[in-house]
Amino acid sequence: IKMNDRCSESLNEIYIMTNVVIGGLLDVLRKNIGCLYKLSECVAMLDLLLSLAHTCTVSKYTIPEFTDTLAIRQGFHPILQKIAFEDLVPNNAYASDETNFVIVTGPNMSGKSTYMKQVALLQIMAQIGCFVPADNDIETNASTFTVE
Predict the structure, then answer these.
(1) Which of 38, 93, 103, 109 is deepest in the core (most CB within 10 A)?
(2) In the chain, where does DSSP find H-type helix?
(3) Strands 91-95, 70-75: parallel, antiparallel or unpaired by DSSP?
């Protein structure tokens, strides 16, 4: 019984010392939390820029050009490119002041939602400065992402 009591007391002392050490660490962390948040933002931005640079160099993406119209020729969803088991079917999309409404129809599981997400994703990618997965018009040296 004495041995069990000594073990219990030792375990309690370990718990108390652990709480003191962890409390001290938390106090230091609380004082520097602003720096840690800033550091995490910097690492996230670096990761984003590295990912965009890697995508631009590895994939055959196109530099988007911005005009008053949205014209995507032979565009495809970039995530589907990585996970597709079969060849992707590229899609075209066009929108301007005159034609700003599109009805997308088709049977269930035919890709309507994927098509709409693709157009939105390519637009976001272009606006943040990333290359986009669409054809490039080599003759005019222009991206078909926004060329009429």
Answers:
(1) 93
(2) 2-31, 33-58, 78-83, 112-127
(3) antiparallel
Q: Are residues 147 and 137 in contact, defined by beta-carbon separation less than 8 angstroms?
A: yes
Assessment of whether the complete model's pTM goes beyond 0.70:
no
Report d(CA 142, CA 110) in Å as an integer: 31
CA torsion 21-27-29-31 (nearest 10°) is -160
Q: One digit per residue, pLDDT tens: the chain, 148 residues?
A: 687 888 999 999 999 999 999 999 999 999 999 999 999 999 999 999 999 889 888 888 888 888 888 888 888 888 887 887 778 888 888 888 888 788 888 899 888 888 899 899 999 999 988 898 888 654 444 455 554 4
Q: Which residue has the tokens 């660490």?
A: 25
